[in-house]
Amino acid sequence: MAIVLIVAACVRLGLHDGLTYPHIAKKALLVGLVVQGAAYYAGLYELHSVQTARALFSGMLKALALASVILWGLFYAVRPLEIGRGIFLPAIAITALVVPTWRLLYNRISSNAGFLRRTLLLGNGDLAREIATLIREAPDCGLELVGLLSRDRISMTHGQEGVIGTYAELRDIVERQEIKFVIVAYPDRRGTLPVEQLLEVKFRGVEVEEGVSFYERMAGKIFVRELKPSQLIFAEGFTSRPTTRRLKRIFDVIVAGIGLAMAAPLMLLTALAIKLDSPGPILYTQTRAGEFGRLFTILKFRSMRTDAEKNGAQFAKENDDRVTLVGKFIRKTRLDELPQLWNVLRGDMSMVGPRPERPVFIEQLDQQVPFFKQRLYVKPGVTGHAQVRCKYGATADDMIEKLQYDLYYIKSYSLLFDLSIMLDTIKVVLLRIGAR
Asked: Which ranges of 111-176 would DSSP assign to H, the alpha helix?
């Protein structure tokens, strides 16, 4: 967009006058950054969902509309930043046409077989099937899945889709199919892994990668169904340095303090709406498990009837009839979470972390979901990697999915990661994704 703006200035004013237009480089940079941010919030960086021409052009128009509103507001507030309509509007029109067209052209070229690395999966279990699905659903990953290998002929004949041979045939299949990338996605490797063949193909220039690491890098989560304790103990990450913890705490206090001050009028209106909508207290308090299982009282705006748990504790569900009229709105917009900023100031929670669960649910889920209690190794958060990546979990399968994201967050624990999650949270709140 920045380059397009300079080109539009040159077309409108002539080469010399366009390049000497007052502060054109700085203005172009500003416009480019705003448009890039708007493109992110319009979902244009989610490559799996913007493969079609319709999705690309629609997303670009949304991004440019948002960017134009922001920029016109800046131009009005800070006059020296203003760009003439004769330059700005043509630049917007050109960007709306050129950028999606370029993306479509790039997608077509990059998805051509000649640009893809031919890939072989060693294994045909749960992990291998998940990786196969990831590759097939991500045409932008640069891989072409040729097939899977099973341990022996018996497992090969059990109706596994895409299985083209056994471990013993690894070398021959790599040569015959011109494989460039082998992913080892078989959990029980003792005495069964074709070590010599893997070493040979690796020395011949074929890239070999461990399946769990590949899945983690591609999906942004840890595959827990075949995870062993040793993989958590000896893996990189899963450490929390004192300096990182101190910086995170300072960050939490600053953000929570500013958040409470800025949200005070909105919280007052929310409290009034709850009071007028249904009888009962404005705030809802509940015992949750914090860092290392320490119990604390969480604060939320009440979104359910006061008798919501007359039959005992239970998960929220789709179209929950216990939710009040105002409750539906504040859940969708995440306004019910605002009082948790006080929990952050008190040190019970962090701005970013796993969702705080009730002790009764933790005991239940620990029996069904492997490594579930390991999510208690960090403070729970107002938002988190799992909260912005998937919907509210109400079943064991949902909880496994969320746990995979939570463990990845704990492994990759850093302040920069927290900042990226908070940016994602703003997007989720604005687009009202995933709340119940």
From this structure: 126-137, 153-156, 170-176
Quick one: 108 exposed, middle or buried, by C-beta within 10 A (0-12, 13-18, 19+)? Answer: exposed
Q: Helix, strand or coil for residue 56?
A: helix
Answer for the pair 104, 75: CB distance below 8 angstroms, yes or no: no
pLDDT, tens digit, for every residue of 234-261? Answer: 667 677 778 888 999 999 999 999 999 9
Distance CA 225, CA 238 (A): 18
Rounded Cα gap, residues 283 and 274, in angstroms: 9
**CB count in 10 Å sphere of residue 156:** 17
Q: What global pTM score does this model have?
A: 0.77
Paired tokens of 310: 């007359």
Residue 228 CA to residue 224 CA, distance in Å, equals 8
DSSP for residue 392? P
> CA 429 to CA 335: how far, in whole Å?
9
d(CA 436, CA 426): 17
Dihedral over Cα of 378, 383, 389, 392: its sign: positive
Note the pLDDT tens digit of each residue in 284-327.
899 999 998 899 999 999 988 877 666 666 666 566 678 888 88
Residue 7 CB coordination number (10 Å): 17
